[in-house]
Amino acid sequence: MFPRPLYGDVDWMPVIDAIRQAERIVLITHCNPDGDGIGSQMALYDALSSDSLLCHAGVAMHNRDAVPRIYSFLRHADQARMGVWTEACAAADVIIALDCGARSRLGMPDSFFEGATLINIDHHASNRRFGDINIVDARYCATGAMIFDLLIAMGYALNADTASAIYVAVMTDTASFRLASSTPAVYRMAADLVEAGAQPWPITVNVYESRSLSGLHMMTACLDTLEIHDGGLSAWVYVTDEMYRQTGADVEDTEGLIDYARSIEGVEIAVFIRSDENVPGRWKVSFRGKTFANVGILAGALGGGGHAYAAGCQLTGSFDEVRGRVQAEVSRTLSAH
Ligand SMILES: [Mn+2]
């Protein structure tokens, strides 16, 4: 028995046709990949590289950045190539970008895309529709849920590996099935994934119960920076280069720290500012909303994007300048309500 799709009105045929006609397919997700990007990629790779005759193409995975440690347990995670595209990599005729709102966020040079049909599958409302084929649908809680529907449309029967990868994608993008995006259809999909062999607790242990000790030191250092602004409506935490040096933690260890800021009673917007590990003077800013504030719009006003409850942007300048610009926009968002 095949599971029901979350949304039966999505026209997947352009994607399916392109996949069927392809000779070489490359799956790619955004820089600093998250659970949704990696889970979507592993699930689609598992399906397309199987013997199920979905496609006859050679399939590869290529991202600018490494698969984060906490997702490395997923089947095929060791198959993803990383780094900036070089001449040595054979060109693809179909590139499928997953969970990525803008082409620049793939972190690849223009030559990467030359001669290939670019398929853009994403659920960010702010998506710039940069593909030749765009399946962009903000109704979905996660790109992984879109892959679930695509695989149903392709007649692919989920196995435990595909189901686990989709489960990771959806679990991480819904804050463990707690965000408002967790509709009844999402829970039905979760049931189908578990039935197909995804194991919720072992997956949870890998993703959320495997922190490094240095990561925990980073957590205490980061929470020590906590500031409350806007009369208790906004909570701010920071990570500086100095804190990376002192704790020995890496950028993966900062995942989820913003959620502690949001968890404070009465806080409506949480802000997390960290220095960009690659570019001095650049800052990565993350936002989380709780009830009424749409942080996707807030991030958009600062040149970034995202969802109503989770979004981000990148800003250049001194720490104080960046904090000042963000504060002005946060206060504007809160006072508009
Ligand atoms: Mn996503």
From TrEMBL:
SUPFAM superfamilies: DHH phosphoesterases. InterPro entries: DDH_dom, DHH_sf, DHHA1_dom, Oligoribo/pAp-PDE_c-di-AMP_PDE. Residues 246-326 form the DHHA1 domain. It comes from the Bacteria. Pfam families: DHH, DHHA1. One of its GO terms (molecular function) is nucleic acid binding. Residues 24-169 form the DDH domain. This is DHH family/DHHA1 domain protein. It comes from Mariprofundus erugo.
